[in-house]
Amino acid sequence: MKLSQITLDHKLMMRVGVDQEIVDEYAQKMLDGVKFPPVIIYNDGDHNYLVEGFKRYHACKKNGFEIIDADVRMGTYDDAFDYALTVANQIGRAHV
Fold first, then answer.
1. Hey, is 12 helix, strand or coil?
2. Are 12 and 81 in contact (CB under 8 A)?
């Protein structure tokens, strides 16, 4: 998915901000060829809400990438919020 098509809503990011040190680490690993799991997106018909993978998204932006692997799921904003609250918040940093 194109990064420009992704809607960032900070209410869906359950952590306080994005750790730039981890973003930098992910960005370097991406340049080194490490394959990351797709980010999780909820599409409500109008928006592609990012609910999991904020650091991966920002690492791609840092590297100048225009495309990111995404698992797109259909659902409402409330579905996106519920996923972010219950699932994405528990996953943590175990993506590499």
1. helix
2. yes
**β partners of residue 7:** 49
Q: Which two tokens stand for residue 11?
A: 């209410």
Task: Give residue-wise pLDDT tens across range 40-93.
Answer: 999 999 999 999 999 999 999 999 999 999 999 999 999 999 999 888 666 554
7: left (phi > 0), else alpha (psi -120 to 50), else beta?
Answer: beta
Encoding tokens for residue 47? Answer: 């928006």
**Which uninterrupted H or E stretch holds 29?**
helix 20-31
- Euclidean distance between CA atoms 39 and 68, whole angstroms: 8
Is the pTM value of this prediction over 0.85? yes
